[in-house]
Design goal:
33% of the residues lie in helices and 24% in strands. It is α/β, with parallel strands linked by helices and 523 residues long. It has 3 domains: 8-199, Rossmann fold (3-Layer(aba) Sandwich), CATH 3.40.50.880; 208-396, HUPs (Rossmann fold, 3-Layer(aba) Sandwich); 415-510, GMP Synthetase, Chain A, domain 3. Strand 17 and strand 18 form a beta hairpin. Helix 7 (236-249) packs across helix 12 and helix 14 runs antiparallel to helix 15 (488-501). The structure holds xanthosine-5'-monophosphate. The site of xanthosine-5'-monophosphate has 15 residues, from loops.
Length: 523
């Protein structure tokens, strides 16, 4: 098998909001890539041996004192270079051209650029916008390039940026002021493909099938005949890790699945069916509902509930692990964005700071070595290989579910009656979303249990029962979100179903708050 990592693109991050998007587009073009901060150790660049280098955008100005610079190792690598936005301006500054503050306010949003000269990067694109000498692009810059370094020529111009793209075909160095990684740049995907495949000559080896084969081979080499333990939650990442490890090391893998009693309807049985029954994975199911309910009795503060749930989870996992004295490896579902976040440069990084950690985070004193087969993959790649390995699409494309589960969707104290009621309401809501083809149109949807009694009327009688809130949001990054505009008829149907089929619920509300000021979860 060809070594998937032999051909790759190095992305130097100047702190741009969309650097991870660049990486995802490069992967979609079939090449492995890594993101490293602009001030990384130059050895990283030398040892990576890239086929090409992309310099990202960034929030700084190249004309400000102390602005981030391109490392000499980028130029001495003698491979094609593409500078995007800040990356282009940094190229210009360092190679002897001139960048100045924009004479008006800069250029933000849609722009049309006219191709002014043939170039390997921009000429003869498939041209989705329909005009052969113009591109519809997305710009975001306050400075602009005023004059080019020796060897470069202008290959595209916009009304506000006379030098919107540049090329030095001798040295294979390119710069574009616009952002090809965002979908608003109509031919953006084709431009990045052109750079990756034609200019850098990457052969499109990075495919789901190759990624799976490569990950299996590497895990086999890493763990040998050792035994591996995995905390399986039923979420996407741990499910894909379980599947991959099972393919790689078969019966050397043992999964621990803790049924906390705070899972969704039939979730525990579904996990067992998929992994233990259908795939033959060793799964130890620990039914710990009572332990969790006892631990949570009387606890009303959300953060205190999170701590109780997290600690119990780890206690149980350790108890199970203690039964094995020859367990050498601990598997974790770390994915590439987690790796980038922890390595982000101290300056100008736009990477998001995680506000929550999964309760699956395991203590450092567990003396096992780590195996993390998804460390190089983005979430969409994890999903794609999950489906390719035969996991049900319904499981792989599920909305995120918080580690503490229903524990943070029951406001205040958690009780079994509340969890049972919420499970039923949530299942009705999810089924309806699937039935009406709305599930995949929202980013996350769930029901929340409000432990307050409100009046309702059934037949001739008044009843005082609980309230269920429905929440559905649309978001890209989960840091901000807006309530999904679900159709009224749909909400009406769900509300009626919930009140008619759950005897202790008298009222259903739909949460229309945005984040901020609200959060996605209610606790
Ligand atoms: P919030 O409520 O902060 O949620 O707007 C943002 C995203 O994080 C998830 N979330 C959690 N995930 N443990 C987790 O693993 C938690 O304690 C937790 N709290 C919130 C939430 O579901 C949403 O996707």
């Amino acid at each position: 098998m060809a070594d998937l990592h032999e051909q790759g693109i190095l992305i130097i991050d100047f702190g741009g909001q969309t650097t991870q998007l660049i990486a995802r587009r490069v992967r979609e073009a079939g090449a492995y890539c890594e993101i490293h901060p602009w001030d990384c150790d130059p050895e990283t660049i030398q040892t990576f041996k890239p086929n090409g280098i992309i310099l990202s955008g960034g929030p700084e100005s190249t004309i400000a004192a102390g602005a981030p610079v391109i490392h000499d190792a980028v130029f001495s690598a003698k491979v094609p270079v593409l500078g995007i936005c800040y990356g282009m301006q940094a190229l210009v500054k360092q190679l002897g051209g001139e960048v100045k503050a924009h004479p008006s306010q800069g250029e933000f949003g849609y722009a049309e650029v006219k191709l002014t000269q043939q170039s390997a990067l921009l000429s003869d694109l498939p041209d989705k916008a329909g005009e052969s000498d113009a591109l519809d692009v997305w710009m975001s810059h306050g400075d602009r390039v005023e004059s080019l370094p020796d060897g470069f020529s202008v290959v595209a111009s916009s009304a506000n940026a006379p030098i919107a793209a540049m090329a030095d075909s001798e040295r294979d160095i390119y710069g574009i002021q616009f952002h090809p990684e965002v979908t608003h740049t109509v031919d953006g995907e084709a431009i990045l493909q052109r750079f990756v495949k034609t200019i850098c000559q990457c052969d499109g080896l990075w495919t789901p099938a190759n990624i799976i084969d490569d990950a299996i081979a590497r895990v086999q080499k890493q763990v040998g005949s050792g035994k591996v333990l995995l905390a399986l939650s039923g979420g996407v990442d741990s499910s894909v890790v379980a599947t991959l490890l099972h393919k790689a090391v078969g019966s050397q893998l043992t999964c621990v699945f803790v049924d906390t009693g705070l899972l969704r309807l039939n979730e525990g049985d579904d996990v067992m069916k998929t992994f233990a029954d259908n795939m033959g994975v060793n799964v130890i199911r620990v039914n710990a509902e009572n332990r969790f309910l006892e631990g949570l009795a009387g606890v009303t503060d959300p953060e205190a509930k999170r701590k109780v749930i997290g600690k119990l989870f780890i206690d149980i996992f350790e108890e199970v692990a203690a039964d094995f004295d020859d367990m050498g490896w601990l598997a974790q579902g770390t994915i590439y964005p987690d790796v980038i976040e922890s390595a982000a440069s101290s300056t100008g990084s736009a990477h998001l700071i995680k506000s929550h950690h999964n309760v699956g985070g395991l203590p450092a004193h567990m003396r096992m070595q780590l195996v993390e087969p998804l460390r190089e993959l983005f979430k969409d790649e994890v999903r794609r290989i999950g489906v390719d390995m035969g996991l049900p699409a319904k499981m792989v494309y599920r909305h995120p579910f918080p580690g503490p589960g229903l524990g943070v969707r029951i406001l205040g104290e958690v009780k079994k009656e509340y969890a049972d009621t919420l499970r039923q309401a949530d299942a009705i809501f999810m089924d309806a979303l699937h039935k009406h083809d709305l599930y995949d149109k929202v980013s996350q949807a769930f029901a929340v249990f409000l432990p307050v009694k409100s009046v309702g009327v059934t037949g001739d009688g008044r009843r005082y029962d609980y309230v269920i809130a429905l929440r559905a949001v649309e978001t890209i990054d989960f840091m901000s979100a807006r309530a999904a505009h679900l159709p009224y008829d749909f909400l009406d149907e769900v509300s009626r179903d919930i009140c008619n089929s759950i005897s202790n619920v008298s009222r259903v509300t739909y949460d229309i708050s945005s984040k901020p000021p609200a959060t996605i979860e209610w606790e």
